[in-house]
Amino acid sequence: MSGGSQFSRISSLIDLHLRPCAVIEVSSVSKEEERNLLIALSKVLREIRLWTGEEIDVSSDGDAEAKSVTQIADSGEFALNSEEQIFLGKTVGDLMRFLMVHSQHVQHLTGNVLLAISELLSAYGKGWGFFVHLLFVYAELSIGNIHPCSSVTITREHEDLYGVSESHDPAIKSKLQKANWSTVAGIFQVLRCIWKYLKQDFKDQLVDSYLNSLNSFISHIPWNLLDDANVGPKCAHMGPQMPKFIFLGYFTQLLSSVMEQVDNKKVQHGSVNGHQLLFSITKLVPSLFLCCLGKEEEHDDARIYLYFRHKLLMLMTRLSGQGLEGSVLILWLQLLHKYFQDLMSEQISMVEPVRDDSLEGSPFSASMFEENIQGTNLYHLKRQAIFLFIRCSLSLIFNEEVVDQQCECLSTKPCLSSHPEYCSHKKVLEELYKWLCQNLQHDTHRGSELYIEECMHFGSSFIQLYAQEDDLLFKVLLEVLCIPIPGSEKFDEVKGRTPDSQENILMHLSNLFNPLNLFHSFLAEIKYDHQVLLDYLISKDTGISCAEYLLRCLRLISESWEAFLQFSYVRSAKKWSSNKERKISRQKVNFHLEPYGTGKFRHGHKLEGTRGKPFDKAKLCLLSLKYSVESLHQKKLFPYNPKVLLRRLTEFLELCFNKGCMGRVGEGKLT
């Protein structure tokens, strides 16, 4: 069947079943009209799904041409002609009307029809990119039409990559006269589902086409108009803000999902447009904070306010791994100070998470009208905010490429913070120091026994805070590994760039985040159970990050053997339970400092179920891990090649032998 007839086939199907319903008044649909419309939409949906099955069958029969078309989708060779664009444009325009109907059931079913058309065009191999781009264009023009209080109107002065402009279809504005935020939310619900489909069947051409259209949408929207603070009292007639928040919810979900899926190398090297999208999203972040958060009291539902905080933190975290400029990191520290100070001000050691410490779901997850969805867990937000604060701060302090950059906010507005001290390397270090100091229980002098105990206690509390989320745990541990150990060449190099007045701050930072102490605390937190480490290593979520963390720590151990050997901070621990096999104990634990070389622990406390010094237990844990990994690797049961890890563990074993540390551990003997 020719391309033109394929698109005319879809258009004719919609005309056949939905044209009788076109006279319905979208703002006041009756029960009978709603019923007839739902029946008509169901017929259209059923027929399109049948056609999609036929297209898939054709591709699976070995038709090389059909398969190649599906793979390259909307590349230049298979671009639509004007007749095909007209048919497809008419199809999208006709369905837009039913997204405006004031009926959640009609909007939902219309969205399903649009999804079905997307799958049909993807299977057919032609027209998919143009179709998706039209959805973004309709969302863009709808936003322009529903801002009557602004003298600014959205115009497309230049034709975009598909040649779509306002003059492309003279009737496009008339079709959107009654568009509202629910319409835009419905479009983005469809666009999110289309992206989910792409994630399952990742095809470069389709993904690149989608990202191009998303980038175009972001570039054309005057985001300052969505900030109600700039709209003024004359816009009071616009009504409740919930539909706008629903759109913003779907939009932030989509951005976060895109940043999760698109690999950094693909963005930077495989697609110029992908790199432009990365820049566009990064630049958009300050405006998203204003649009989504603004003032807490503006939100009808506190759950949505919490959810926006969660999604924006997640988006920033994923963007922050893309090598951002110092000016962006400085701006983000301002945003964290403005919107998350309440979460970051509480002492880490005072946090006692509840047993049900998880995300229960999104207020936008299933339906914009769904009730009784729990909000985002505050402890999760606290961990996210602190992680991002640490990542941005350490990048500014220890990354020579961004040191001493001045604040050049990407926003068109003035700085969102009244704290210009963030705008220098010196002040970033001071602000990090202030945050660390508020987490120490006593005002101690560096070098004193109490100070050492405070540092150890902070490290243990820090591990315990993140141990309840495996993915964040290893991310934050890898992040703080960039802090050099006092006496190392890296430390002396950073010290040389640090003003004399801040040398003590740098030393304090290094003491609190001493990687050897944190590694010991991490092993103590899992009760030196090598099976827990093995679970991490073979997990698809934490395997790579856990392996990287172990490798880097083992290298540090070989370089600082005596420091690792003399660690003497121990605690009582409880056995883990897990969503997989194990999970960290939710009980608060007490840590005690023991002078190295004595046979008893301070105050008579010992580790439950284990004996010996921390080094002995760490040694037994790591060597047991070595034997377990070797056994699985020999049986070809380990999910990836662990040779580098095994080599490092073997080097650790050799160090134990060479240093005469292979004696008894507890009641067992290493051989």
Q: What does this molecule look like?
A:
With 671 residues, this protein is an all-alpha fold. It has helices at 3-18, 31-60, 64-72, 82-99, 104-124, 128-145, 172-175, 181-200, 204-220, 242-261, 264-270, 272-292, 302-320, 326-344, 378-398, 425-437, 449-466, 470-480, 489-497, 503-512, 515-525, 530-538, 543-559, 561-565, 614-634, 643-658; strands at residues 569-571, 591-593, 664-665, 668-669. The chain has a domain at 3-221. It has 26 helices and four strands. A two-stranded antiparallel sheet has the order 1-2. A two-stranded antiparallel sheet has the order 3-4.
On the 0 to 100 scale, the average pLDDT is 75
β-strand amount? under 5%
Q: How would a textbook summarize the main sheet?
A: 2 strands, antiparallel
Q: Strand order within the widest sheet?
A: 1-2
Number of helices: 26
Helical proportion? 55-70%
List unreliable stretches of 5+ residues.
62-77, 150-155, 229-239, 354-358, 366-375, 403-422, 570-611, 664-671
Helix- and strand-based class? mainly alpha
Radius of gyration: 29 Å
Domain Protein Lines N-terminal: 421-566
Pfam family, one: LINES_N
Domain Protein Lines C-terminal: 621-652
List keywords for this structure.
671 residues; mainly alpha; two-stranded antiparallel sheet; two-stranded antiparallel ribbon; 26 helices; elongated; disordered C terminus
Summarize this, please?
Residues 421-566 form the Protein Lines N-terminal domain. The protein is mainly α.
